[in-house]
Amino acid sequence: MLTQNNIALVKIESTYGLDPTPTTSSNFIALSNVKVNPNMTYNETTATDGSLSPRAGTLGKKHIELSFDHELQVAAGAVTAPPCLTLLRACGMANTSGSLVPRTTGFESCTIWVYEEDILWKVTGCRGNVAWNFTAGEPVKLTFTMQGRYAAPIDSTFPTSWTDAGAAPLVAMNKSFDFNTSIHPVVESLSFSLNYAMVQNPSIDDAVAHGINAITYSDRNPEGSFNPEMTKASDIDFWTGYAAVTQFPIAYVVGNSSAKCTISIPKAELMGITPGDRSGTLIYDIPFKMVRNAGDDELSIVFAAA
């Protein structure tokens, strides 16, 4: 079996853990570096007797971890509904009036089917995190780390066709990066994540849960970083803002001739400034914290026509 022969289908669940049966015609998403990792707890039997030989053990709680990358696409026929929208909703984001924002309640989940040639993993109850990575001149990369309920893989015929609704990946260049509303530092890369704390809720009930009732969240720690070229304080005064814990808005637009994705971080607090070098040019590496205004508004992502 070939690593390259790998297909993923993703669909939002109406009921947590209940497979909505994704299809190749409606739920395909282009992914890379797909890894499916069954996580099982082995219980050693601790009783002793007159022999040093170990007793047979047992299996305890089980769940599945998945990780993969997606080069950000917009849907060729529906720019407001990119192929990754389902995954973003299952990573703690609410789709509110066309704007994706963080949640505190009402978390959604998805089912992910992964075909590894003629082996099929059906992972239900998936929730997780996504890290956004923008590097100048490269496709925007979203790195997902998901967890879901355990189910053993099954034999299944590898699909012979699928519908890819996505256009070419969006590339991080030729658009606008704004710091503090109207300042445009020279930045090579931007990254951020909501960093939800994942929780496996244990349960002694439910025969299909394998000891874990649901994957959910207990907290989040939204952070990011960017690396602007060094400037004089009279041009961009990062140091004064850092010392005063000033809250700066950060915004970035990435897109093509037909669609765009607008990233808005209304209040970013600089967490440090480390001088560095990029091919002979002095730079700063600057991590930042995304903080609230009224709550659940430290990040906004909007897909729209260009």
Give keywords.
50% strand, mainly beta, 2 helices, 306 residues, 4% helix, 18-stranded antiparallel β-sheet, two-stranded antiparallel ribbon, globular
Brief characterization of the structure:
The protein has 306 residues and is mainly beta. It has 2 helices and 20 strands.
Pairing-aware structural class of the strands and helices? mainly beta
- Kindly state the number of beta strands: 20
On the 0 to 100 scale, the average pLDDT is 95
Domain tally: 1
CA-CA gap between termini: 41 Å
Order of helices and strands: EEEEHEEEEEEEEEEEHEEEEE
Overall outline: globular
Estimated helix fraction: under 10%
Fold and architecture overview:
This protein has one domain (6-39, 61-305). Helices cover 4% and strands 50% of the residues. The protein has helices spanning 85-89, 238-243; strands at 6-12, 28-29, 32-43, 58-71, 93-96, 99-102, 110-116, 119-135, 141-149, 154-155, 177-179, 187-193, 196-202, 212-220, 223-228, 247-255, 259-270, 274-278, 281-290, 300-305. It has an 18-stranded antiparallel β-sheet that branches. It has a two-stranded antiparallel ribbon with strand order 13-14. A hairpin with a 3-residue loop joins strand 16 and strand 17 (259-270). The longest helix has 6 residues, at 238-243. The two termini are 41 Å apart.
